[in-house]
Design brief:
alpha+beta; Arc Repressor Mutant, subunit A; three-stranded antiparallel β-sheet; 233 residues; globular; single chain; Jelly Rolls
């Protein structure tokens, strides 16, 4: 694993989507100056559910599968994160700061990491840092609230469309309120099925129907959203 400072382009990526779109320019600039780059290969686990937080991690490039590990069960895929999304580090400075998910690199990824020690130093410059971290925690809270609401639906068509909308960040991720189409998402049909809590055989026909309607285009290990309005319930 290599560590390096962030480039200007990498900082722009983190400023364009997700948590930092809700923060002031001076704070975001100061935070990113403290970040350094960490690189992980496909299949590597960035950290494990239950680990103590050692800071914040923002995804710069690549994609990461977020897994939970229910007792006595196989890991469950909850979400596929893309550039601009930060890990569950909103509680990094609190006493109860165990990780709630296990991010696994789906391809070679670059992550911006800022340590807990650097965050404590930053708090001297920004006394409201903990409130800013609450804003990060609220993104995760909104995601899990949305996930539970989506999964309460028993209609397989609605479950599939909702899974794709979550991949776009709709309903929980700042910076996605006025997106443009098309948007390419590096996700397989099997993963969409897992996110929707459905079988691959159930999801396949629905995806083909959405493609015929002009909502998406199916590709190898990816889908392209052409018209997100057609994904609404």
């Amino acid at each position: 694993m290599k560590t390096r400072q962030l480039s200007l382009l990498q900082k722009k990526i983190l400023l364009s989507r997700g948590w930092l779109t809700t923060q002031s320019t001076d704070f975001s600039s100061a935070l990113l100056e403290l970040c350094y780059r960490r690189e992980f290969q496909a299949g590597q686990t960035i950290f494990f559910e239950g680990d103590e937080m050692d800071g914040l991690d923002g995804l710069v490039s690549g994609s990461v599968g977020l897994y939970s590990s229910p007792t006595d069960n196989l890991p469950v895929l909850l979400h596929v994160s893309g550039p601009g999304e930060w890990t569950d580090g909103g509680r990094a400075l609190s006493k109860e700061n165990a990780r709630i998910v296990s991010p696994v690199a789906r391809n070679d990824v670059t992550v911006a990491h800022v340590s807990t020690q650097s965050l404590r130093a930053l708090e001297g410059e920004f006394p409201d840092l903990r409130l800013r971290l609450v804003a990060l925690s609220s993104i995760y809270l909104n995601f899990f609230t949305l996930l539970n609401a989506d999964n309460s639906n028993r209609d397989i068509d609605a479950l599939t469309r909702a899974a794709i909308r979550r991949l776009l960040g709709e309903g929980f991720l700042p910076g996605c309120e006025f997106p443009g189409d098309p948007v390419e998402i590096p996700v397989t049909q099997n993963e969409i099925a897992e996110l929707a809590r459905l079988s691959r055989n159930a999801v396949g026909p629905i995806l083909r129907k959405l493609e015929q309607a002009g909502a998406i285009s199916l590709g190898y290990r990816k889908i392209t959203v052409l018209n997100r309005n057609l994904l609404q319930g």
